[in-house]
Structures are given as C-alpha cells and as structure tokens.
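Encode chain A's predicted structure.
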Amino acid sequence: GAGAVGIAGLAGCSTESGDGSDGSDGSDGGDGSDGSDGGDGSDGGDGGSTDGGSSLDSVSVGMVTSTSGPFAVFGNAAVTGAKLAIEDLENEFGVSIDLSTDDSQLEPGTALDRARAMVTEDDVDFLMGGVSSSVALRLGGWASDNEVTYFATGAHSSALTGESCGEYMFRPTASNSMLANSIGSDMAEAADEWYLMYSDYTWGQTAADAVQSILEEQGKTVVDTEAVPFPSDDYAQYVNRAEASGAPAIGVLIAGLDLRKAANQIIASGIEDRTLAMHQLEDFVFWGLDEASASILDIAGQVWGPAVGGGDEFKQRVADQGEMDPYVRHLLGYMSMDQGVRAALRAGSTAAPDMREALEGHQVESPIVEMKGGGDMYWRAEDHQLVQPTYTVTSRPTDEMSSDPYKEWFAVENEFAGDDVARSVDETGCSL
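Encoded structure for chain A:
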C-alpha cells in the first residue's frame, strides 16, 4: 500500500534454515594505505604497516557459507563477490590467493565442523562467510578462542559486535542497530503505533530490540511483538494476528526468503494499505515478487544495492557472470576478501594477532569505498564493526523499474554516515 514504510526485513544475516536449536540463540592501494605494494607503509589508521612492502606472496582463505538448498542464492552471491575481489587483489599486488569453500547447510554445528577442518587440515590463513547470524556467532566464538581471523561476511545480528563480540571476529557489513537507526525516524513519522513480528533467532531478536528501542525513544508505541518460528511455510496466522491488533503500522522483521512468503500473505490478506515496515532490504527477495507487489515498499533500510551510486563497474562485472543480478551479497563477499587480504599484506603476516593489529582503527581506502558510494569507512577497534554508510531506499513506480542491464527496482532516498547510525561503544556491551 500507499503507506508502506519498509525497513525491509530480509535476512541480512539471516537466511537460515535449520538452526532452530541454536536459533535463539579498480584499485587505489598504490600509496600503501590499504595494502602493501611498496608504498609508504601507512595504513591510514592505527593498524599495522609494512615499511616497504609485504613479504607475503600467497594467502589461503576458507569460506563457509550456504552454497546449497533454498538459501544458496545468498551464499553463492557472496562467493562470486569474493572471487571478483581475488582477481583485483592478485592484479594489484601480484599475490596468489587460494579460496576454499564449503557449505554451512545453515547449521551452526555443521559450519563449525567444516571451518575447523579448513583451518586444521587445509591450513587456510583466515576464515570468512556465514549468511546466518547463528552460524556466524558459532564460527566467531571458535575463531576467537583459537586465534583465527574470521570475517562474518553477511551476518547482521547486533550481538556479533555486541555482547558476543570476539577478539578475532570482524563484521564487514552493517549491524541491525545501524539499520534500525537509519530507518527509525521515517518509521516514527509514519505512525504512532506499531506491531512487530520477527524471526525468532538472534538476527530477528536483535532487529526487534533495535526497532522497538528507537520507536519508543521517539515517543511511539509498540502495541505488541511476536516471535515467529523460523523458517516457516505459513505466515497466515501471524499476519492475521497483526491485522487483529488494530495497529496502523506493522513491522515485518522476517529473515531471508521467508520475507517473500510473508509479503505475499500480507498482500493476500489485503492489509498492505497499512504502513508496512520491513527491516532490511535485499533486492533479490523482492525480485521474486512481481513488480506491482514489490512496489508496496515505500521506504527501507539498506546496506547496499544497485540503487546506490557507486560500484557501477562492479555491478556490471557481476551481471556479466550471468548467474544473477548484482545485489548486496555480492559486495559483502568482495568486501570480506578485500579487507582480509589487505590486512594480511599490511601486516606482512596472516597470524591473527598481526591481522587484528592491522585492522583495528584502520581507515579504509580500497576500491570498496567507491563501491559503497563514497563516505568514511573504518574498522572500529573497540568492537570490530566496519563503520560505513547506510541508506534508505524507496521502490520506483512500476513503469520506472528497470531490468536491463540488471534489475534496478529501488531508488536511494537518504544516505547516512556510519558514525551517525552506529551505536556508541558503551552501548554495544562488547569487551575486547
């Protein structure tokens, strides 16, 4: 409907099937600032430096993510992005990068077994991956206990850089709290009373907490919240309860492709004319709807997407792969690989303490800054969050939705500096 305010609820860190038991729970490195190619050795922050170039000539990376099953589109997109980053890094630095991938099956225990084998048997230098926040929490805890660097590639639960932060875990994407802070003022302006439904595991739980907090801070009322089992095949009963609440606005904080099911049920129930808030927009989920259905979204929070004015060459390279149109998961895979390899090169070492020193406080100056549309990006030392711009977007009118050379169904409304939406260090509960 006409009033849909979306905080677009896709699983930024979430698309997860089967972790129910754990569910509650281009190149500009020439100056040495973001790599190690013989420049002045400065890393732009307080991270490590190499004074004349890195001694590393090869890096081995292990990536455990969802590569099969109903959510493979998320994990495989990140793998594609990581491979594109490898091409660029090898060209820029002359380093050889080996990527090993394995399927998490969206199960924290399975993911950990496969990540452990990569480290102990295959001798990978650092880890990345994880579509699900529950998977990322398990991998990050193990990696930090065992001095292995891990990049939580696509996981958005605030716990990852909050109370469950890890000494060697780094989050290259935005957190739920950053996205909630991006969209919160629009939600508050749209309606005084809200009903929130959310996927019942760490991603949805922290999303609901963040959204409820920002609404109440602005004097609005959350009339009720409902934890929805995840995954679910039928959202009718939850949509009916949202309708029965009488709230004029409904927050749909539903993970992964389940958001598509929930959106279809909302349309079928005829309540799309209420203000609809969906936590985090990932374009791919809406591409699975028809254009008219996708147009119910009036405003949404977003980490990145084809609407963002940056990374045009990268978007075209993804489209040229012929597998799927570019969206946020491609960039997250690229960013994780880019930042991990550059940290190792700056440090001249793949040892986790050395990579940590090269990352903490580091001001990013790699191509990912332009891809993200510009703006300040840095690794916050206190919680290992990559502070970065976030966006709100709105759906285009159906006659302005473009699908050539790749789908662009949304337009950017506002850009937010990372420092303006990131929680203060004191609020995170992280202690490193």
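DSSP finds 16 helices and 14 strands in the chain.
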